[in-house]
TrEMBL record, chains A, B:
<dbReference type="InterPro" id="IPR046886">
    <property type="entry name" value="RsmE_MTase_dom"/>
</dbReference>
<keyword id="KW-0949">S-adenosyl-L-methionine</keyword>
<keyword id="KW-0698">rRNA processing</keyword>
<dbReference type="InterPro" id="IPR029026">
    <property type="entry name" value="tRNA_m1G_MTases_N"/>
</dbReference>
<dbReference type="InterPro" id="IPR029028">
    <property type="entry name" value="Alpha/beta_knot_MTases"/>
</dbReference>
<dbReference type="InterPro" id="IPR046887">
    <property type="entry name" value="RsmE_PUA-like"/>
</dbReference>
<dbReference type="GO" id="GO:0032259">
    <property type="term" value="P:methylation"/>
</dbReference>
<dbReference type="InterPro" id="IPR006700">
    <property type="entry name" value="RsmE"/>
</dbReference>
<dbReference type="GO" id="GO:0008168">
    <property type="term" value="F:methyltransferase activity"/>
</dbReference>
<dbReference type="Pfam" id="PF04452">
    <property type="entry name" value="Methyltrans_RNA"/>
</dbReference>
<feature type="domain" description="Ribosomal RNA small subunit methyltransferase E PUA-like">
    <location>
        <begin position="18"/>
        <end position="64"/>
    </location>
</feature>
<feature type="domain" description="Ribosomal RNA small subunit methyltransferase E methyltransferase">
    <location>
        <begin position="73"/>
        <end position="242"/>
    </location>
</feature>
<dbReference type="Pfam" id="PF20260">
    <property type="entry name" value="PUA_4"/>
</dbReference>
<keyword id="KW-0808">Transferase</keyword>
<keyword id="KW-0963">Cytoplasm</keyword>
<keyword id="KW-0489">Methyltransferase</keyword>
<comment type="function">
    <text>Specifically methylates the N3 position of the uracil ring of uridine 1498 (m3U1498) in 16S rRNA. Acts on the fully assembled 30S ribosomal subunit.</text>
</comment>
Length: 252, 252
């Protein structure tokens, strides 16, 4: 069933008012009529089967029929901090990362990031990304839309990461042949309900200085298999492994 | 160190002859000179550190100096059969799938594939894909370049899959709430050295008829987390989970 995330102010007692792009999608793309059913998601994660009771000039009115139980959210919260990559790779990371269950994304200006985002450029990008997360959340049947933060510097990011339960960063150099715990061991020590902060380097990886700072702030360097992954593949590996570990390996 | 896959006929006793695109890459892009070192991969998986002994008009001659031990190949062989997707998604699957360790790719014409590949179109696509696998193998430091098969029908694919040790297909409908083993349970029963055949549906998934045929040929339906993944994300989830399971969860 088609799913729409509806902003909090559009929920009024037993009715949901659907406007803007979703109004267009319902009336023009899906060509829904009165009495057709759809799923409306509240920003707090609840989801309801609703029935269209009226199509007005600028809004669709739907009546709540049934609460949907169950959740498609990862049992652990995962924040992906991504060193600014080149081109449109961030869009791929955000779209696929949303499908794979990320709770939030933080773009950050890494030493080896070639691009710089500022002012208007950043604003425009964040607007585009918020559209991508909404669409990918609807498509993948998530209960919540991931947050996208403003771009941070490494020091802002280290401060942001402080309250997290577990912090990791894929780092080929450090992880190679070291005595540090493997990615599997790190995940084995995490419990459902905890929060993971994963920091991914841009093309060219982290500078030695960045790696030092991460380690001194409690980040574990991890290996994602013995192959060298492109930056956009690393985030997807981290999320797919966390889903596999907590959702498919344990639930037997 | 820069890595090049060199065809078998270009290995002669202690010398390797590098031609065509790689010749161009070495002389124009990397601007290597005599005595510079690079890694040459033999199609059988062996890799050597070599030293450039001469740059001629159409070829670079390199002398073998040292065999590289160790392998970046997955301990299980994974074949990805991918229902033909729209647009250039197959390129993404092949590039990322190579980084993540796939042994081979089989494009197949699924019931719900919207595109049809034939004759010249297929030939051109396969040529492009073989370039992508070579570049992604070099970039990710693999020992072998994955194979790309000609497009198959489902019945050809079922025949091809017969000798494999374990066969899976992500199938939301079948896996939901069923008593079948989870993806984690399936992987736990696989031993290093065995071969996995993973069959991924196109946009819109498998038709019920295709799912029936797969099941009757010994394929296990599996779930890849509770979210609905786009077709191109499914292959990457399968490969990342297999890498995590065999390379990062076990090696503690």
């Amino acid at each position: 069933m088609q799913r729409y995330f509806v902003p909090q102010e559009n929920w009024k007692s037993e009715q949901v008012f659907i406007t803007n792009d979703d109004f267009h999608h319902i009336t023009r793309v899906m060509r829904f009529k009165e009495d057709d059913s759809l799923i409306c998601n509240h920003p707090d994660g609840r989801a309801y089967i609703c029935e269209i009771s009226g199509i007005e000039k600028n809004q669709v009115v739907a009546v709540i029929r049934e609460k949907l139980e169950g959740s498609a959210e990862l049992p652990v919260g995962v924040t992906i901090a991504q060193g600014l990559p080149k081109g449109d790779k961030m869009e791929l990371i955000i779209q696929k990362g949303t499908e794979l269950g990320a709770a939030s994304f933080i773009p950050f200006q890494a030493d080896r990031s070639i691009v710089v985002w500022n002012g208007k450029k950043m604003e425009k990008k964040l607007e585009r990304y918020s559209k991508i997360t909404k669409e990918a959340s609807e498509q993948s049947h998530r209960n919540k839309i991931p947050n996208i933060h403003q771009t941070m510097s490494l020091s802002e990011l280290l401060e942001e990461s402080a309250p997290y339960d577990v912090k990791i960063f894929p780092y080929e150099e450090e992880a190679k042949g070291s005595q540090r715990p493997s990615f599997g061991k790190v995940l084995k020590d995490i419990h459902p309900g905890q929060h993971i902060f994963a920091c991914i380097g841009p093309e060219g990886g982290f500078s030695p200085k960045e790696a030092e700072q991460l380690i001194s702030h409690g980040f574990h360097p991890v290996r994602l298999g013995p192959r060298i992954l492109r930056t956009e593949t690393a985030a997807l590996y981290v999320l797919a492994s966390i889903s596999y570990h907590f959702e498919e390996l344990r639930c037997q």
